[in-house]
Amino acid sequence: MNLDRVAILLATYNGRLYIEEQLESIRLQTFQNYVCYIHDDGSKDGTKEFVQSYCLKYKNQFCYVEGQPTGGAMNNFYYLLKKIEADYYFFSDQDDYWHPQKLERMLKNLKAKENDAQIPYIEFCDLKVVDEQRRILSNSYMKYTGRNRKDFSPIYLLHRNYAPGCATLINRKLR
Prior knowledge:
With 175 residues, the protein is an alpha/beta fold.
């Protein structure tokens, strides 16, 4: 697993209040063979400057991607997907907080299913819904949003945004 190129794509916009905590939760992952690529979408609150200094401090694992604002989170992630080559891609929002074994567990689960790198694969997990102080509102995003396991069919997954990006891992072929 350590030979694979793993990219974390992090899109930011006016997230200075939360970004440091998220970057630290990424930096402290048990799986360390990744690079976190960050593109800012025109922040006015110091997010971009903080991210750039963080990337200089931890330059082996964090990289600021220069570029013009893209006009929203979805376009920001597409911009990063076009720029970054990797075997696996995680997605991160600026206000997330990742458990230390997130990368390790999700990669292990996807790789256990992935028997052909030419086939698109996606892995996603549930997450806790929290407020601004990280107080738990729900232990399950799936239950919070009314989703259930019967909705995991490939057809359903193709037609609906079932799992939030911050809980998703894809392989190169799905990119």
